[in-house]
């Protein structure tokens, strides 16, 4: 009442809901929810009760069935006793009849033959009742009907061994015989059919299968037992493979090892089981081998079907693992008389060959992109000690070398010993192709004409080019390190164990006969790497010398006209003769390059000497082969003087002393210089100049060249403290090495420039016309 009065005390508004209305609304919703939950609980209770009732009724029905089965068994036992009693009764009845017949016969005193008939009747009656053969056949029928295979098998084997009538059953089963023999054969076939049905069950366990096929073998059905055994193992193998195949995409690199384990372990177990059951396998070995070969062919087909894309690293690894695992399993099977190594390699060879080829193609594409800015980065610190970077300008080319080795190691790391064993030659050949592609990449990064067609290519835009001496030397140093150290070291890790295994006679005889790489072949591969490296070195030397010899306008600085009439701006002939200005410039240029090489190629003195020696040889080589240079001396208008010949010979001795002073002298330089001097003497002699009277002794030229070098070196050191003398300073055009070759005359001169491959520094070099 108070609440109603309170409500009356306050004015009501349409937009205000009274508390009583709110209570009534929410109370009604709550009651509805409770009622709904209660009804659902009641329904759930009824369902649980029904389920409990059904379970209880089914359990009671099961108990009733069990009791009925027990009662049925008791009734069967009673029936069996009753049948036995009836048999005894019939036997007693027959005995009584026989006795009555005997008494009747005596009483009637009939003729003698009636007694014989009675005896025959008695024999027949007793035989029908007590014949063990009929009893045995009935027993077999009962055992087969009750599926007591083991007891039936034992009974048939025992009867066959004890009965003389059945002794030759196995040797001549189709021979005519008694009705018992034919009945026995029929029962035996029934038992065989029942055992076959047991062995063909899809989910039969190993013990039951072994028991079944062993029974067939005891019955003389060894061929059928072997067939059922192999079919059963094949069925199990297929089920295991089908269960694993969905996981192949997850284990893309190792799925082949699991498949190999499944297949070859099944072959091994099936062979062992067959040997235990059949015994002597000489008759059935061909069938086992044929079955195993079919399984191996199916295995290889599955490997190819589920392989990743052939050009991926996962495909290479899976193929390598497949070869390794399969051949390892094959070696284990050899102890069982099964040799499948050749078969597995014949089947896998095309697949592995394709995967190797596709992966190396992918590697070549990666090498082509090495100079792209986004692809260049410093690799593992393991290579930093070998690919040392001493100047910032060489970081990029050192990184390219590391990237190249990273590409190579990505492939080599995926290979297994068995793949190296069988595909060693192919791997070395493809690695050589990769290095050739790497060399082509570095040649394109150098300025100058191409190695192949001697034409300046219309190059694609590249992010990095070796323009300065330091960059070019860094590029060469990196290439030398890769070719002579890193790449052989990486390859030797996988090749050397195979070579040593062959030399000591390790491994199976079949494996030794197919070792792919010998020590001689490995050394030859390393020599081919050096030949590829020489292409890069010779290209560098050629473009470097051509840049020195020719100005940007295409004019040759080594002009034979300066030797005519013994005078010219380039000649210095007084009490202290000096080489001509171009050869002074060459000396300064080589000194400068040697200084840069000492910084860039720190610790690689051998490479420094090889490069400087090649550069020296290349200058003399150009001089000996440049026909325009020698045509000047043949010109009828040319006036030759002894002083010009002396200057030319002094220049040649000066080149030799440059090499001797720098510590990179070689027999090639001496031979080339001797050839140039001989040719010069011949050219001047043709003009009427007597070399005997015009030339001093050879020792004079050697001493003059040594004195000139000492003077130039002293002048160079003094020039560091003062302004240099104009004769000691190389013209800015001559020392400019940053400009690329662009003059047509330079390109034409390449045709007459030696392009033959050079050997070691102490070996002779033969030059031929590149157009020949």
UniProtKB/TrEMBL annotation:
Coiled coil: none annotated. It comes from the Eukaryota. One of its GO terms (biological process) is Golgi to plasma membrane transport. It comes from Musa acuminata subsp. malaccensis (Wild banana). One of its GO terms (cellular component) is exocyst. This is Exocyst component Exo84 C-terminal domain-containing protein. Pfam families: Exo84_C. Belongs to the EXO84 family. Residues 717-742 are annotated as: Disordered. Keywords: Exocytosis, Transport. Residues 137-340 form the Exocyst component Exo84 C-terminal domain.
